Amino acid sequence: MTALAIATEDIAAAPDRGPLPPRMLSGDRPTGRLHLGHYAGSLANRIRLHRRYQSFFIVADLHMLTTKNSPADIAETGQRAADMVLDSLAAGLDPAHSVFYLQSGVPEVAELSLLLSSLVTVPRLQRIPSLKEMVRHAGQREMPLALLGYPVLQAADILAVKATAVPVGRDNAAHVEVARELARRFNRRYGTVFPVPALVPADVPALPGTDGQAKMSKSLGNAIYLSDPPGEVAAKVRRMYTDPARTSPGVPGTVEGNPVFIYHEVFNDRPAEVADLKERYRAGKVGDAEVKEKLTAALNRFLDPIRERRAALAADQGLVEELIVAGTERTSHEVRRTVAEARAAMGLTRTLAGFRAAARARAAARAGAGEALSGQGV
Ligand code: TRP
After folding, report:
1. Which atom of ligand 1 lies closest to the CA of 29?
2. What is the 3-state secondary structure (H, E, C) of 265-304?
3. What is the pLDDT of residues 213-261, one digit of tens each?
4. Does ligand 1 come within 6 angstroms of the Cβ of 59?
5. pTM of the prediction?
6. Does the Cβ of 157 fall within 6 Å of ligand 1?
7. Whose CA is nearest to atom 15 of ligand 1?
8. Distance, CA 151 to ligand 1 centroid (Å)?
9. Nearest CA to ligand 1 atom 8
10. Which stretch of 62-76, 82-96, 244-258, 264-278 has the lowest confidence by average pLDDT?
């Protein structure tokens, strides 16, 4: 069964509402331009699916604060968010089918995160490997509270827009699992408010960095960006890590796990060329230089139309900003409605309403007493 089938099932099981329009949520922290790892991990799925859903894309600046929160980091958010949205549009998201929003512009999400945080334990969150890795990455010795709550805030993002499908990379799979648990737990305890979101996993292998490290990432300096010019791509590919045991073109090489071949596999649109290169590589009949030249050519074939669209979109000044403003307003509206539903389901609304009724009754009684007194000519 596919991930999408699970989502539909969970919605169909929600007893007291008709079927919801399918919603998709995905997005990134505004830490820099998007690279090939983002593309393979989730952007490709977003592009493939976004017209079939009501699609929301978050610029997760509150999530960024869990590891990067200096005034200088925060000051860069605007430029980075604009770059990310530009990259996504250039890569193929249609602005007519995409709602881009700034997380900190929708503060009700933080309220939902707080409400959900009573439904998950600290050890459950401490076991999530991606969080431990982020602590290490940020050079921290201890876990900041906000970082431990990262998956809960992400669950709030997902549930606040009632997303049914969440395409994310491997690092985020455990966070979507937390969102699924929280949706079920909330619904069971307080009544059905949230559809249980489904993970949409990447359908290609994880993309290693150009240096052969397991992950492509800006902070590791091993990324090829969607906006890199052709010469930059050629230079990065020339320096790429390949089979270290291969000291000359005549030595048979290993294709499996070799980053150059993983990139060929994911991005080269000429499968016959890839098959031929693999065969000759294994037989010691092709030099690394040729394999890399063909990879550069393939990557540039893939990136050329993206570069063209990016340049055209960037020339349209204020476009991205306008999309983010409109998207943040639209999302704000959705989220306020969902959080009000959650508060009502929990009974929080009733508490204040009860106080209001009693206070009104008292005011009315006071007014009545005042009238009675004034009737006595006091
Ligand atoms: N955690 C994502 C990242 O690694 C960003 C994110 C925040 C997100 N909220 C989300 C992704 C909701 C998908 C759905 O940058």
Report:
1. 15
2. HHHCCCHHHHHHHHHHHHCCCCCHHHHHHHHHHHHHHHHH
3. 989 998 899 999 999 999 999 999 999 999 988 888 999 999 999 999 9
4. no
5. 0.90
6. yes
7. 28
8. 9
9. 27
10. 244-258
CA of residue 267 to ligand 1 center, whole Å: 24
**Section 303-314 average pLDDT:** 97
Helix axes 288-315, 259-267, angle to 10 degrees: 50
227's tokens: 């906006």
What angle, 0 to 180 degrees and rounded to 10, lies between the N-to-C axes of helices 173-190 and 129-137? 130
CA-nearest residue, atom 2 of ligand 1:
28
154 in contact with ligand 1, CB cutoff 6 A: yes
Beta carbons within 10 angstroms of residue 300's beta carbon = 17
CA distance 259 to 157: 34
Contact 332, 108 (CB under 8 A): yes
Give per-residue burial for 185-222: e unless 16+ CB within 10 Å, then b. Answer: ebbeebebbbbbbbbbbbeeeebbbbebeebbbeeeeb
Residue 20 has a pLDDT of: 59
**What six digits make up the tokens of 148?**
């431990």
